[in-house]
Amino acid sequence: MPNIKVFSGTSHPELAQKVVDRLGINLGKAVLKKFSNKETCVEIKESVRGEDVYIIQSGCGEVNDNLMELLIMINACKIASASGTCNSTFSLLLKIKR
């Protein structure tokens, strides 16, 4: 299997778990929290340097919050030097290259 990491946003962690179970890998470790002023904080708790990163986040529920969380997760992975970030939201698959 290529070097990939799969992370989950808070919109559908059960789906992300099913995906990684099917792939036979572990779900990436990340801490997502909201501050009292509703700002989102994301901490990627493992190295993604040189890895292809997939972030599973749906567009259901609080769409604005889920989209902002996804964008913050993408940014955190890019800052941590992921080789490529793929994300799935609103039934689209987007590939973002550095």
UniProtKB/TrEMBL annotation:
Occurrences of domain Ribose-phosphate pyrophosphokinase N-terminal (ranges): 4-83
Signal peptide: none
EC number: 2.7.6.1
InterPro entries: Pribosyltran_N, PRTase-like, Rib-P_diPkinase
Gene3D superfamilies for this protein: 3.40.50.2020
Keyword annotations: ATP-binding, Kinase, Nucleotide biosynthesis, Nucleotide-binding, Transferase
GO cellular component terms attached to this protein's record: cytoplasm; ribose phosphate diphosphokinase complex
Pathway note: Metabolic intermediate biosynthesis; 5-phospho-alpha-D-ribose 1-diphosphate biosynthesis; 5-phospho-alpha-D-ribose 1-diphosphate from D-ribose 5-phosphate (route I): step 1/1
SUPFAM superfamilies: PRTase-like
GO biological process, one term: purine nucleotide biosynthetic process
Gene Ontology molecular function: ATP binding; kinase activity; magnesium ion binding; ribose phosphate diphosphokinase activity
Cited PANTHER family: RIBOSE-PHOSPHATE DIPHOSPHOKINASE FAMILY MEMBER, RIBOSE-PHOSPHATE PYROPHOSPHOKINASE 2
Assigned protein family: Belongs to the ribose-phosphate pyrophosphokinase family.
Protein name per its UniProtKB record: ribose-phosphate diphosphokinase
Species of the source: Trichonephila inaurata madagascariensis
Protein's gene: PRPS1
